[in-house]
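Student: I would love a firmer grasp of how sequence relates to backbone shape in proteins. I am handing you a single protein, as its sequence and its fold in token form. I am told such tokens are a discrete way to write the fold. I hope you can help me see how the letters and the tokens relate. Take your time, and here it is.
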Amino acid sequence: METEAGSAIRTDRSVSEKTAAERSFQIVLYGGLALFALLCVIPLILVISSSLTEEKNLAQYGYRLWPKEFSLSAYAYVFKNGEQLLTSYGVTALVTAVGTLLGLLVCSLLAYPMSRKDFRFRNGLSFYVFFTMLFNGGLVPTYIVVTQFLHLKDTIWALILAHTVSAFYVLLLKTFFATIPDSLVESAKLEGAGEFRIFFGIAAPLAKPALATVGLFFTLIYWNDWFQALLYIDDRDLLPLQYLLVMLMTSIEFMDLNPNATSGMEMVPTETVRMAMAVLAVGPMSLVYLYFQKFFVRGLTVGAVKS
């Protein structure tokens, strides 16, 4: 009895010691993660704080987590042409929404048949898609096709169709669709379902994590793109937000480099305006990422390793 009691005591002690060690490890782990998260948030706080301070205080005291002197002069300068800013916001939101939905539809409809083993041309189509990742026509032929053959210059479609299909996203979706069991497709066919019914009713819902991940990528691409507007857009009513901010930043840099040309004009808060533009450009995408983050890791990892 004493021996059994002693062994029981030793067992309880080892369990308690193990539990204490696990708790200590969890405290250290969570503390490290909290510190890492804080380090990631600090730059964002610095940008917001710098956009809400006076230019002279930023030059004198440097970047601070809390403004030395609260001021909205940078935002007042940016919103000086408020009507154009709102128009550009609307253009960017429209391009992002339509481009993301259209890109998801086209890429998924291209990736799904490539993942089907009973599709005769799957290997040839996969090679064709992969080939476009290595070689492309270049900037000049693309510009000629868009402007001379498709006649898309100064149209909203010039901003949308440029990123509609991505070979990398097609291959990513193909890998995910390949993990769907063939038995589901065969059962649906026995029930009389057609290919489009199978895709929209079975494949697409099962691929929601991958579609959400690719949708986030498309959203970031369309929201941050300004180069297509530089090439194809002259109409100010079609200027996207990012290109408008690039034009504003270019004019500010010109005034900094040529002080004689701007003598007598109002002093431009250069650094704080940069921070204000960063806040205006990044803010909406931060909210979008918060919604899609639950799908992000799963969409990238599921289907990456096949058992």
Notes: The CA atoms of residues 46 and 290 lie 20 Å apart. DSSP finds 14 helices and no strands in the chain. The radius of gyration is 27 Å.
